[in-house]
Amino acid sequence: MFSTGVIANPTLYVGNDVKIPMRANAFISGGNIITSIPANESVTFLQSKDGWSNIEYKGQQGWMISRYLSSEEPQNHKATKLVRRIGGLNRKIDRLNQENRNLKDKFKKNKKGLAQQEKQTHLLGLQEIQLNTNKMELNNLRDEALTMNNSNTALLDQITTLQSNQKTLYGLDFLTIAGAIALFLGLIIGFFGSRSSSNKNRAIYTI
To answer: Where does the chain have alpha helices with state H?
Structure first.
């Protein structure tokens, strides 16, 4: 049972095995019953008066004999709350299990993605090595091209010099040939001139 002193709106429970009437005022009368409250239902205590308790039940206020009320929560309420609590815990466990599965799936995806990233990183490393190798080969080719260009320049200079020398030689040969021809012509002219003079002398002596 509970104390009949003033309590600040505690929750009380109907403690009988049958429905207990809630009355409009604090005395027993056939016409003042507002409703009947089943056993183990909870009510809100407002005040007590001469063995009666002023209570509120589902928005209605009335009076009930105090000995039918108890401050101890019924076992079935405790069991109901325990069942509800267990149900809530089970739902929480289910939610946590689902979150755990989601995290595992996410971890697998991340692990797979990490493996792919590592593979891509490895490929990028190989590509970078190949690129550096290509750069080295390109630099070598550039050096070879520069060397060949320098060699070509020197060769062109030599060819130009040879051509110039050849032109000089051609000029000297031409002069030599021309001189020889002039000398030959001079000898022929002199020969024929000498012969002509000899014939004239002979003709004079004959006359």
So the answer is: 75-206
| 62-119 residue pLDDT tens | 999 999 998 888 776 666 667 677 888 888 888 888 988 888 888 888 887 788 888 8
Question: 73 vs 4, 70, 142, 152, CA distance in Å?
Answer: 17, 8, 97, 111
C-alpha torsion angle, residues 33, 34, 39, 42 (rounded to 10):
-140
Q: Is residue 202 classed as helix, strand or coil in its secondary structure?
A: helix
Q: Return the minimum-mean-pLDDT range out of 43-52, 96-105, 192-201.
A: 192-201
Nearest one of 1, 3, 12, 4 to 45, comparing CA atoms: 12
Residue 68 CB contacts under 8 Å (≥ 6 apart), including other chains: 14, 15, 16, 20
Residue 157: both structure tokens together? 């200079």
What's domain 11-73's superfamily in CATH? SH3 Domains (2.30.30.40)
Question: Beta-carbon neighbour count of residue 52 at 10 Å?
Answer: 20
Residues 74, 40: contact at Cβ < 8 Å? yes
Cα 112 to chain center, whole Å? 14
DSSP-assigned beta bridge partners for residue 22: 35
Cα–Cα dist 190/194, whole Å: 6
- Distance between terminal CA atoms of the chain? 201
